[in-house]
Specification:
The protein has helices spanning 65-69, 176-181, 199-212, and strands at 8-17, 21-27, 41-44, 47-55, 58-64, 78-84, 103-113, 116-124, 136-139, 142-150, 167-174, 192-197. The protein has two domains: 8-84, Beta Barrel (Elongation Factor Tu (Ef-tu), domain 3); 103-208, Elongation Factor Tu (Ef-tu), domain 3 (Beta Barrel). By secondary structure, it is mostly beta strands. Strand 1 (8-17) and strand 2 form a beta hairpin. Strands 1-2-5-4-3-6 form a six-stranded antiparallel barrel. Strands 7-8-11-10-9-12 form a six-stranded antiparallel beta barrel. The radius of gyration is 17 Å and the shape is globular.
Length: 214
């Protein structure tokens, strides 16, 4: 379990094919490794991965073909957001994040609002029911507050009008600190991002479905 509060920006240095997927070697950036052991879980761009080796100050992870299929940013070298799993006594600064990516979104807009940025992301339509205004969503492993949710029928401005027919969209505000300490500052329209919906919203929807079936 994670909180979506990115601890460091690392870098995937190498991607080596294996029988079941790939092995990543990741430089941890500012992430301290003194309390990291084999078998620990670390969120890499929002995807929970298991440490399979510690060598020369680098982390190694095995990523299955299925994980590669349903995520982005894990199959090639590049900067990644890193977060260690929570301890029970840790502060929950963001929201409960499992590290189980629900889908891949696409950046529709990345607009300057003074020092901030307004990020608009198209998401697969099935995820829209779990995303609510003032609720939480994880983008590339970063816990963010949703400012607006728009279905295709409500898209009035040019950015939102670009939502694909089988998608919805949401907007979040990125403050300078978030832009500086995560990879989100490098996003551009057209970029793909890992999304995870709020865990509580998922269970609330499931309870509602169960009640409706009685």
């Amino acid at each position: 379990m994670f909180s979506g509060m990115v601890a460091a920006v690392g870098r995937i240095e190498t991607v080596t094919p294996t029988a079941g997927g790939v092995r990543l070697r990741v430089s941890p950036g500012g992430l301290t490794l003194d309390d990291v052991a084999l078998g620990d879980s670390i969120a890499v761009n929002g995807c929970c991965l298991t440490v399979v080796a510690l060598d020369g100050g680098q982390l190694a992870f095995d990523v299955s073909a299925e994980s590669l299929r349903c995520t982005v940013g894990l199959g090639e070298p590049g900067a990644v957001n890193l977060e260690k799993s929570l301890r029970l006594a840790d502060r929950l600064g963001g929201h409960l994040v499992t590290g189980h990516v629900d889908g891949v979104g696409r950046v529709l807009g990345f607009e300057a609002l003074g020092d901030n940025r307004r990020l608009t992301v198209a998401m697969p339509a099935p995820l829209a029911r779990f995303v609510a205004q003032k609720g939480s969503v994880s983008v590339q492993g970063v816990s963010l507050t949703v400012n607006r949710v728009d279905d295709r029928a409500l898209a009035a401005d040019p950015v939102l009008a670009a939502i694909p027919a089988d998608h919805s969209a949401f907007q979040v505000n990125l403050i300078p600190h978030t832009l500086a300490v995560t990879t989100l500052g490098a996003l551009v329209p057209g970029a793909s991002v890992n999304l995870e919906v709020d865990l509580l919203a998922r269970y609330a929807a499931r309870f509602n479905e169960t009640d409706a079936g009685h």
